[in-house]
Amino acid sequence: MFSMFVYTNNYLKCGIVRVSHFHEREYKFSTRAPCKYSFQPAFVGTHDLIDRRKLHFQARGSKYHKMSSQVMEKTESNVAVEDSLRDLPLSNSYETAMEALSSLITRQKRGTPSSVGGKYGKFDRMQMYLKILNLEEHIPELKIIHVAGTKGKGSTCAFCEAILRECGFRTGLFTSPHLIDVRERFRIDGFDISEDKFLLHFWDCWNQLKEHVSDDLPMPPLFQFLTVLAFKIFVCEKVDVAIIEVGLGGKRDSTNVIKEPVVCGITPLGMDHTEVLGNTLGCIASHKAGIFKVPLKVVEPLDHKKLEGSKLSLSGDHQFTNAALAVSLCKCWLQRTGNWEKIFQNDNPESNMPEAFLRGLTTAHLYGRAQVVHDSSSNCHFGSAPADNSSGDLIFYLDGAHSPESMEVCAKWFSSAVQESKQLPNLSSSSHDVESMKEVWGNGYIQSERGNTNESNKISKKILLFNCMEVRDPQILLPQLVSTCASSGTYFSKAIFVPSISTYNKVTSGTSAIPSGISNQDLSWQFSLQRLWEKIIHGIEGDVVLDESSKLDSAETLPPREFLYEDASRCSPADGNLACSSVISSLPLTIKWLRDCVRENPTLRIRVLVTGSLHLVGDVLKLLKR
Fold first, then answer.
1. pLDDT greater than 90 at residue 187
2. Would you tell me how many other CB atoms lie within 10 Å of the CB of residue 216?
């Protein structure tokens, strides 16, 4: 399915979001400017997760009252922010902010209904929050690009941001979810917002909203708060353009308070979030189309010839579709805002790709999507291989694919990235030649035929590190992954199933404590994934019964080193002999185990595909960066 985009017929003169009238007698909103800061953390109620005694500002006394006025006097300058916050214990304040954000989570797990009190609907509440923060009239100044879709909307937004930044504009980018740190959701000029600026905007937003909390108007749920915070950040940081990614769906998404976007985009659709959006593409499309401000144009994938020999910075053939949509969105934005003629003068928008566009397409980045991390146990190299021969033995391929369509794309990318398909039998995905597959799996490793003598002696193993949320259907995801990889001649030596560290009901930062092991961990879901995996790779119909003795009896249990080299052809699930897969109770222990394996054997190269969950991908990235 082609990507598509729509743009407003009359720039800044249309809007389809209908909001009911606000009763000024009930709510007297401040008319203060949106960027006049009240910098102290809020007085938090007893039902929140934060005790006021924990707020480090209170311990510092009146010093920060004085500092608040200093910030108000110099908000135009980035230096003012740095000067005012230089002495603050930011890590403590940041963790306090994360606790505050966690208190806004209104559901315990994905798929359960959100319970938000008050008498107003979502969009009424959103408009009231914006009015409290004095942002209503400023949002059109952001000249927004609004993007929805099932697959590729994050990549499309990243391409848009990079292109317009290369064109000379100050950019703001709001995406979701974050993988390591919540600040990833807010980019200014291509960088995650700094910790001090985040705290400045966060506490001011929090305080103002807290002042207006009532039974009728509660604090916003997490995503609504982050959406409002994004608008506040971009207004106060005076961006020239804000690229806003829809959170879920479109029509009912919190971001759809945007009445007057310059241009809207819809990326390809697929079967995801069906518990909310419906179980047909038609139902899903109706939600995505909720951000439309017509007319409509359909965009075909980008012709690689237009890149003039350059390569897209985001890997995978599917990125040509996302890049094409981004190019069209940016061209439309430049034309509708009157900037095309100023920058490119008389150039025809339909002719050759502008140099700034090429730079954007070749430098855009997005965490956890087709990302390669070379790990040498003591040093991590993000995006490129280490320079010395002693490193690069442990390579992580990370992609947060969690739908059938994205899993297929992930499998194609991984198969291409490992570049080993020519050394393996060419088994089509439709073939059920179990004996041939057993031969490949039983081999356990392949010898690289490229590189120098040392490289050619490397024992190469491909391992799947997998987890998915229980609302996903692994009976679709895992077969899709295996069959697509097999069609390219790519096979996994082993599979490891592990629970994620991140939880749905807590917001953590990149510096939050990570438990090394989890006692009494419920691994029933991971064992069900393992059973399914054994069925798939052995071509077994019906249920696979695992002997109880094969299960982990301790949260600290790790497979022996021999597991990595064990001949998978001897695997017999019915007898409890599982040579093809393992369940490990702790992700940190899993990473340590993999590192120990390559440290003890310098001839070993392990390529780990991490997929099935953005939570899992984020957790792995967090561990690798430490």
1. yes
2. 14
